[in-house]
Every structure is written in structure tokens, then in C-alpha cells.
Amino acid sequence: MLVDKVQEVFNEPGCATNQDKSAKERKKGCTKSLKPGAAAGGCAFDGAKIALQPIADAAHLVHGPIACEGNSWDNRGSKSSHSQLYRTGFTTDLSELDVIHGAEKKLFKAIKEIVLKYDPPAVFVYQTCVPALIGDDIEAVCKFAADKLGKPIIPVNAPGFVGSKNLGNKLGGETLLDHVIGTREPEYTTPYDINIIGEYNLAGEFWQVKPLLDKMGVRILSMISGDGKYNEVASAHRAKVNMLVCSQALVNVARKMEERYGIPYFEGSFYGVSDMSDTLRNIAKLLVGRGAPNDLIARTETIITEEEARAWRRLAPYKDRLTGKRVLLFTGGVKSWSMVTALEGAGLEIIGTSVKKSTKEDKERLKKIKGEEFHMWEDLKPRDIAAMLRDAKADIMLSGGRSQFIALKAKVPWLDVNQERHVAFAGYEGIVALVEEIDKTLSNPIWRQVRLPAPWDAPAPALGETAAE
Hints:
Pathway: Cofactor biosynthesis; Fe-Mo cofactor biosynthesis. The chain is an alpha/beta fold.
């Protein structure tokens, strides 16, 4: 039942919020109702689709009104190196008549059409608010379709009204645990097999990390879910180690895989020179602990030494121009701490960062890096962000697209570092790209122009003088 699954996700012991609760409070779950507008960042359906759609060779069918698919289509810049089927929008396009008569037959017909026309390895079927309210049983339809068509048809039961985008991320992860992971065996295994969990290959940035893992000899058994393949995700239970990139979204997947299959996991970051190096070391150390040859550690250290030297050499030309420039970082999750170290390595000064989507471990890392007095905000209203930009005299703001207009109204340079970005910032290559983008943004002559008074606001020339004088 959906209610039981939501409660199970709320009770997730790996969640940092739950770790601070008593046993009695944990049983209540996160039952506090959202204020109007608080879910503007996305509903549960949106979160589930974000988590699963980067499995690129599968078909993703939205059972609901066309706006649910239209509003969520391609809203993240996840890239694929193989199939592009994930970018095709499939929907049952429910109408008023479907609401009256039910749409289960229409759903089966849509699944059958997709299978016959595209022959994907699997079809994910997303429940939305309208069919959930009228009682369409997508799980029964998916089971019937799977038996008839001989394909995995995966029900994703995360209608928008059950909660926020983050809850939907976790429900998407639960779908993989219940219906996908462990359903296939890989063709072969090696002592170097790992899964990457919570990495979405935004702007293709994981392609800047994969060559390093290839050089180490590490094999990515599955990506969950950026640049993912369905059959690889289905065989993910045979990996030796799991790396968790975004624990806020998919910690339940990593913890339950450790519980069910004995796969240890760690949380790491691909952002910044030192954090990238620490991640490679952790992967090597855990793999050796699970039976990989000991020379993996020495090979990894050689790669780190070469890549760090190359990265610092490429960053050096920017340091003189950027030293002392003040940055307001308004993001969350792993970027709340990993980008701090990345940017300070280039000489930038971080005046504060948001931690709204960060875990307890993220916040502790940030305190360790910057000290207890460093400015961290759980939630900041737009007018407070504007005040911060004004009072702290920030030179640039790094955030997501939803807060860009605050910076633009304050006439402060802004750079997108969230999911809509088009530049890859991961790995040693990514930190150089990030610093280059900051330098270009700060150097843009438009900021000098917008800060000048408008011609009609400029002081009138004194009597006997011309405007040119």
C-alpha cells in the first residue's frame, strides 16, 4: 500500500533528520503539512521521475493529464551516451471522460503501443494525482501487461499529492528496490565493480569522472541513474561497493542494498580538487577491503598526484583575478560543502551557504571546513537573500535558476550551479570549468553598465554646462 510505503520512507534510519528524533517521534513520520507554495520545488511525482528518468534506454510513461508530462519533460539536463528514448515523452493524456469511466484500459493500450513500437527493455509507469484519486490500479495493470507482453512493466506509485519532490526521489528509489534491483544477473563480475547512486550526469559531467575510474581499473556496474541502462541497474546487487552522491535523495537505496546484499557504501563528492581525490581514495580503499588487489591503492595515488598537479596548474592563471572575490552560495545537498572547498582553492571567499537540502553529515563537514561561526541557512526568504547580497557585498551569487532573479534585481552577477546548468562542474576538469565560468561572469561588462544610474536618474548638468562636459 502507498500509505505504508510512504511511512516506511519517513522512518528511514539512514535519514539525518530521523537520527535526531526519538523512537516515538520517528513513528509519526514527517507528518507536518506543507504550507501553500512550499512544494513549489516539485511534487512527489516530479521527484520520482527525476530519480528514474535518466535510465535512458527505458520508456517512461506518465499516466495522467498531459500537463503532468508536459511540465516534467526534460526538466533536468541529464545526458546519455547510448539510447535517447528517455527524452521521448509518453503520456496517457487523461480527459474528463477518463476520469468518469476510469483509464486502466487506456493505460494498457499505451503500454502495448510503446512495447510494440520501441521495444524497450522495460517501461516505467508513473502514477499521478488524477488516476490515483479515481482509483486506477496501475500495479495491477502493470502486472497484467508484463505477463501479456513479456517485458518488465514497472509501476511507480508516487502521485504528487503524497508529498514533496524529495519524498518522490525516495519513492523512486523504493521502486528500484522492489521491482528492478536483483532481477537480473550480470554477464560477469570483477573485484572492481561499483555502483554510483544519486548521480544524474547533469550536463554530462560524470563523463569527466569516468575516465579517472577507467584509469584506476574500476568498473561501473550500474549508474543509478544518470546515463543508466535498465539491465545494468537490475544487476546492481552484484557490485562490491556503492558510492552515494546525493544522500538526501537516495540514502534508502544505499542502506537497503547494504542490508539485503551486504554492499558497503560511502558518501562522496565529485566537486573540487580535494574532494575528488578523497572520493577516489575511498573507492580504492573499500574495493581492496572487499577483495581487490592491493596495488589499486598505489595506482590511485599516482593518478591523484598527476591530476591534482594538472588541475592546480590550470587554476593558477585565475587566482590573481579571483583572490578576495566574495561568493554567496545558495544551493544544498553535497554542493553545500564540496563547492566551498573547491572555490576556496581558487582564492575565492565564501561568505555563506544554504543547507536546506543538506544532511546532518553535510552540515558537520561544513563546520569542520569553515568552523562553527560560518554562516549556514536552513531557509532564507527572497528579501533576506537580497539583504545578504547587499550587506555582505557579495561579488557573485551561485545558485539554482529559481533564485537567479534575486541576484539580478540586486545587480549582482549570478551563475547557475544547480540541475538546469549546461556546463559540467564535476571532477578535476569540472573545477577548472567552474572557476572559468565565474571569471567570465565577473568580467562581463554588463554588470558595470547596469550599476550606472539610468540617464533619467543622472544629475542634471550645471547651468552653462553641456551633458558631454
